[in-house]
Amino acid sequence: QVQLVESGGGLVQPGGSLRLSCAASGSIFSLGWYRQAPGKQRELVAVITSGGSTTTYADSVKGRFTISRDNAKNTVYLQMNSLKPEDTAVYYCRARTSGGTSYWGQGTQVTVSS
CA-CA distance, 110 to 114, in Å (whole number)? Predict the structure, then answer.
């Protein structure tokens, strides 16, 4: 069983920055961040594989967001810069095991507003 604990959401002005963290227990292959805005489907934001060798980003966040991973702490981070109002959403951490099983965090609210 994998448990995920997210932190770091909040309210920020457009152009500001936030860093999300997700601490995982158990053996994880990949970790990622997804988001869901009101009335919209959940979408991929960024994913990073074991060891940090491969990262994937949604086109909408490329150049602004950076995903990183501390394997010693089994923690994934999402550094979000140049935030826009359209980045407002609940952000979820997702962990996948080598066997393909997915686990989700409880979600953390990110609001970008002046």
Answer: 13
Q: Which two tokens stand for residue 76?
A: 């994934």
CA pseudo-torsion sign 41, 33, 30, 6: negative
Q: What is the pLDDT of residues 47-106, one digit of tens each?
A: 998 776 799 999 999 999 999 999 888 899 999 999 999 999 999 999 998 888 999 999
Strands 89-96 and 102-104: antiparallel
Closest residue by Cα to residue 98 from 35, 29, 44: 29
Q: Counting runs of H as helices and runs of E as strands, what totals does the chain give?
A: 0, 11
Tokens 């988001």: give the residue. 35
CA-to-CA distance for 47 and 69, rounded, in angstroms?
Answer: 10
